[in-house]
Design goal:
The complex is a heterodimer of chains A (about 475) and B (about 525).
Chain A lengths: L2 H7 L4 E4 L2 H9 L4 E4 L9 H10 L2 H20 L2 E8 H4 L7 E4 L11 H13 L6 H10 L3 E4 L5 E2 L11 E7 L5 E5 L15 H25 L2 E2 H10 L9 H17 L4 H12 L6 H13 L10 E7 L2 E6 L7 E4 L20 E2 L3 H5 L20 H10 L4 E10 L5 E7 L1 H7 L5 E6 L7 E7 L3 H14 L2
Parallel strand pairs in A: 1-2, 4-5, 6-8
Antiparallel strand pairs in A: 3-7, 3-9, 7-8, 10-11, 10-13, 11-12, 14-15, 16-17
Chain B lengths: L1 E7 L6 H13 L3 E8 L2 H10 L4 H4 L6 E7 L2 H15 L12 E2 L2 H7 L5 E4 L3 H13 L3 E4 L6 H14 L3 E2 L5 E4 L2 E4 L6 E8 L2 H13 L4 E6 L12 H12 L5 E6 L4 H12 L5 E5 L4 H6 L3 E2 L3 H11 L14 H10 L6 E6 L2 H12 L5 E3 L17 E5 L3 H4 L10 H11 L4 E9 L8 H18 L5 E7 L8 H10 L3 E3 L2 H11 L6
Parallel strand pairs in B: 5-6, 6-7, 10-11, 10-12, 12-13, 13-14, 15-17, 15-18, 16-17, 18-19, 19-20
Antiparallel strand pairs in B: 1-3, 2-3, 8-9
Helix pairs in contact in B: 6-7, 8-12, 9-10, 14-19, 16-17, 17-18
Classes of the chains: A alpha+beta (about 475), B alpha/beta (about 525).
Chain lengths: ~475, ~525
């Protein structure tokens, strides 16, 4: 139909971009109008605007759209299931006796933040590679230990993400694409290694997890075969979790699924009681599990030529790192940001370390901060109202490629979660992904001090767009 | 005094909202001055000028919000800052079905599939990108933004032609589609006269005069001021003309513009010649012969164009109150002015209003100066009047970095007081533009200043004649009659049209030959 005639014969139905007063006047006249609040794309940077324009030429736009559809299709159709537990050294590709995996993009010892240093020295003591923390610091700085990002080993790690050879990890398999993903076990509580704490109580717990919890879970899964994580994750979302900062429901249903098999293991009654009490001690028990499920799905979307979909968002407490499907093997980094949110009593904002952890894999997949509307119970934790939570969740539709029909939000009429963050849309709209997260103390040895929300720095997306501009012909 | 600068990264508000906010911020007790603005080069310059510039402000990008506060001391700054931050908080209705505001055209289109028009009022540097996206999504576009490059305008209009879409603008402030006013538009009667106009306030005036003469408007299509230039070639006016010819609700067509480029005028005449509906053409200032030769009806002024269109559309001329010039009034005012009160100072919000008044005054006096129009009669300094001076406050010289004078009257008020103090001035003429998008009480904010000016002139032993033209209809949101009544109460003379404004002003300062 002729566009002009449609306007003149029907009636104006308006998209008003810019001055909001015009929209208000239209609404007064009964004109159906939606408002677009304009933000200078790419922060007004002319060089980036040129890149965006270059990439939006019809031929490239089409190629990118097709690639992104493929990437998101892989994310949506991924089917992660829990298949077992095992020692990191035995199961994680590239793991060695002197390798320590950490959260976030690559980083050297001298640039690591307090929580990361605390976790690494604690892990070295736990592994018996150092007698005490002081000795561990010398060893860590010596160059003898290989530090490598979890993400480069099909692994994710919550907070500091420190994963050492003898720690037990989840093994998650993508039934649709065959790839595997790994992640550490939850240490529960707040004074824990991944938050940078490393006193004897922390080391003792790690030893128990290595000697009792891990092997018992491993044996249970050998009996169980597999547990469908995508199904459990979807159910948890329907039960009020967003599967990042709230895991009450997820932990209940995961432990329900594990319990019959845990009960059948050959461990002593006391060990079993200890394990059940440990699970009971924190709702966070299933938190890492969902991270591994998300990692499994996102890895399946890696390496699709011309795709501008983000497959990794992670932080090491110093840098925030992003990886993009169409640019395999490349990291795009910017400074880790301050997390804004309530702190435990006795701590002040200046105590908090910067954003840290691989847990943003949940937002990369579409849950966590992206599914705030699913978890009204925690909107106060992140300082907002329910309406704001819905607003956040809706906003994320503007920077993503599609919605995931397999993981839905009841409050939004069972709309699927926003999936496939698009670097170009982030720059175009100026909307940054929202991430729910915990806050670790900035000094080593202390632990978790709060939780809140944070965004990646725009720099990551700027650098990614520059590389895409070079790469897409 | 302490200055505190807060930069909010990646936080964007439009200049109109920020002006409102800045105004409110400056009213907060304890604040000596406050600036709330985006980190553009222009705004940084403003900071330099008001002595609020700092290194941290330098770091702000155009996508960052700057809040700068000057107060007694650090504590007062912090206290004030809290209050400024509160201004940004929109009250939460608690309604879960809150209206969604989008951050991208693409997302909005997805949600509102029936949309057929995008109105774009983003900063000019970005308007092209946004308009292009709108066209790609199959939307007609009205570009309110100015400062869009000419080649970009051409590219957009060519793209629209290929897609059968309409581009109104850039710098298009006024349109009425199916009875709905877009941006700056008046609430006029619906009817059978379709308008295509290359000027904003000219279009408002024509539509309001049509309403006043008892006629009505089917659609008013704006084209932007450069559409009839050689480069653009009248793409939008020709498209509008064709659309109105095919539109069943339109019976008479009215074209309004400054005199087009020669080649463009020829194209228009040729399309008019084959048009099946009567066409009235007003190219302010002429081309009577060519217009008549093309089979169209010539109108010299906006008022004449409106009247002729209404008559062609079925109005009975003898039943229309055409508001003829009030000759006894001219005589009366002439007598009140002293011999040395020779000059008219016109202070206008509307560009076409200014231009048309200027044209009419110039027919009587050669020494009419302005910040727009004929380069031979440009003011050396737009802030200093010379002889008869007509100022268009909507021109770039006055709108850089601030909202249109129809919304923000402060510059005109300043200038008004200056002109009122000049003993050589006999008449100050002003327009008060009503309708959507305009200030909600343009007359009201002027009243105290008018009162003061009149009083001071009287104390100096002279009469100061203030001539006002209120552009609007009774149905406009501002209440036309009340605006007129308020002005009359202060002794202001009211003109009934742009044309009469020019003719009355010229008459008032006419001196009898000695």
């Amino acid at each position: 139909m002729n566009g002009i005639k449609d306007l003149l014969y029907r009636e104006p139905v308006v998209i008003n971009e810019g001055v909001e007063l015009f929209k208000e006047d239209l609404v007064k006249q009964g004109v159906q109008t939606v408002q677009v609040n304009f933000t200078p794309p790419a922060g007004g940077n002319p060089q980036l605007l040129d890149i965006l324009d270059y990439l939006s030429d019809p031929r490239r736009k089409e190629a990118i759209a097709l690639a992104n559809q493929e990437a998101v299709k892989r994310v949506i159709t991924s089917h992660p299931v829990l298949v077992g537990y095992g020692k990191a050294l035995d199961v994680i590709p590239g793991m060695t006796a002197k390798t320590i995996l950490h959260a976030g993009p690559p980083i050297t010892w001298d640039r690591m933040c307090g929580a990361m240093r605390g976790a690494i020295t604690g892990a070295l003591v736990f592994e018996g590679l150092a007698r005490d923390i002081a000795e561990a610091e010398v060893l860590a700085a010596s160059g003898e230990i290989i530090f490598s990002p979890c993400h480069e080993h099909n692994t994710v790690g919550s907070m500091a993400g420190v994963t050492s050879p003898s720690m037990y990890v989840h093994i998650v398999k993508n039934k649709a694409y065959g790839n595997l993903a790994y992640t550490n076990l939850s240490e529960q509580l707040s004074k824990i290694l991944r938050m940078g704490a490393n006193d004897q109580s922390v080391i003792d717990r790690l030893i128990w997890m290595r000697d009792v919890l891990g092997p018992m879970l491993k044996e249970a899964m050998e009996l169980a075969g597999e547990i469908d994580l995508r199904l459990l994750m979807s159910q948890a979302l329907h039960m009020g979790d967003e599967c990042h900062n709230r895991n009450v429901a997820g932990t209940s249903i995961l432990s329900q699924a594990l319990t019959p098999y845990l009960a059948q293991t050959g461990f002593s009654m006391q060990d079993k009681v200890d394990v059940f009490n440990f699970i009971l001690s924190s709702d966070y028990f299933s938190g890492p599990t969902w991270m591994a499920a998300c990692k499994c799905a996102m890895d399946a979307a890696q390496g699709i030529e011309n795709s501008t979909v983000v497959t990794t968002m992670c932080r090491n407490g110093t840098d925030f790192g992003v990886r993009v499907s169409g640019l395999p093997g490349q990291w795009f980094t910017g400074p880790s940001q301050q997390v804004i949110g309530p702190l435990f009593a006795g701590f002040k904002p200046e105590d908090s370390g910067l954003d840290i952890g691989d847990s943003a894999i949940t937002e990369t997949y579409g849950i966590g901060g992206f599914a705030m509307a699913a978890a009204p119970a925690i909107v106060s934790l992140v300082g907002g109202t329910v309406a704001e939570a819905i607003g956040f969740t809706d906003k994320m539709l503007e920077i993503t490629t599609d919605t995931n029909p397999n993981v839905t939000i009841p409050l939004l009429n069972f709309r699927g979660v926003a999936s496939g963050i698009d670097v170009l849309k982030v720059l175009e709209t100026g909307i940054l992904p929202i991430i729910n997260t915990a806050i670790a103390h900035k000094e080593p040895g202390i632990g978790m001090i709060g939780a809140g929300i944070v965004h990646p720095p725009m720099d990551c997306f700027v650098k990614a767009a520059q590389a895409l501009g070079q790469n897409i012909r | 005094m302490t200055v505190k600068t807060v930069i909010k990264k990646n936080t964007y508000f439009d200049s109109v909202s920020l002006m409102t906010l800045s105004t409110k911020a400056n009213k907060i007790e304890g604040i000596r001055q406050a600036v709330v603005a985006m980190g553009t080069a222009l705004n940084k310059e403003v900071l330099h000028n008001v002595g609020l510039y700092s290194e941290s402000a330098e770091q702000a990008t155009p996508g960052d919000l700057m809040i700068i506060i000057e107060a007694e001391d650090e504590a007062a700054c912090d206290e004030a800052l809290i209050q400024v931050e509160e201004l940004f908080i929109r009250k939460d209705s608690g309604d879960l079905n809150q209206e969604i505001k989008f951050s991208s055209m693409a997302a909005a289109v997805k949600r509102l599939e029936k949309a057929n028009l995008a109105i774009i009022s983003v900063p000019g540097a970005y308007a092209f990108r946004e308009a292009k996206k709108a066209l790609e999504n199959g939307l007609n576009v009205m570009i309110f933004s100015d400062n869009v490059a000419l080649d970009q305008e051409l590219a957009l209009k060519q793209m629209a032609s290929e897609k059968g879409l309409l581009v109104m603008g850039p710098d298009c402030g006024t349109a009425i589609i199916g009875g709905k006013g877009l941006c700056f538009a008046n609430e006029v009667r619906r009817g059978n006269i379709g308008i295509v106009a290359a000027s904003g306030t000219g279009a408002q005036e024509v539509s309001v005069r049509i309403d006043d003469f008892g006629g009505g408007v089917s659609h008013l299509i704006g084209t932007g001021g450069r559409d009839l230039s050689e480069t653009i070639g009248g793409i939008s006016m020709l498209a509008g003309l064709q659309a109105l010819e095919e539109d069943p609700s339109t019976e008479v067509i009215l074209l309004l513009s400054k005199i087009p480029a020669v080649a463009v005028a020829e194209k228009i005449y040729s399309q008019v010649k084959s048009c099946s509906k009567p066409v009235v053409i007003c190219f302010l200032g002429g081309q009577q012969e060519k217009i008549t030769a093309a089979g169209a009806v010539y109108a010299k002024t906006t008022k004449e164009a409106a009247l002729k269109a209404v008559v062609l559309a079925g109005g009975k001329e003898e039943e229309i109150n055409t508001h003829p010039l009030n000759l006894p009034l001219i005589k009366e005012i002439k007598a009140k002015l002293r011999a040395d009160q020779k000059y008219i100072r016109g202070l206008f919000c509307g560009g076409t209003v200014c231009q048309e008044v200027m044209g009419l005054v110039r027919e009587k006096y050669p020494n009419v100066y302005s910040n727009i129009g004929d380069p031979a009669y440009r003011l050396a300094d737009v802030h200093i009047s010379k002889d008869h001076t007509m100022i268009d406050f909507g021109d770039d010289a006055f709108t850089q970095g601030r909202p249109h004078p129809m919304i923000d009257p402060s510059l005109r008020i300043e200038r008004f007081l200056k002109e009122a103090a000049d003993p050589a001035v006999g008449v100050i003429a002003m327009d008060f533009i009503l309708g959507y998008g305009a200030h909600n009480d343009p007359a009201g904010i002027m009243l105290p200043h008018i009162r003061r000016a009149k009083l001071e002139a009287a104390q100096a032993g002279r009469h100061l004649e203030i001539l006002a033209f209120v552009l609007g209809t009774e149905k406009d949101p501002q209440n036309f009659s009340e605006q007129v009544r308020m002005l009359m109460k202060e002794g202001v003379t009211i003109a009934s049209s742009v044309v009469n404004t020019g003719l009355l002003a010229a008459g008032f300062v006419e001196k009898e030959a000695q």
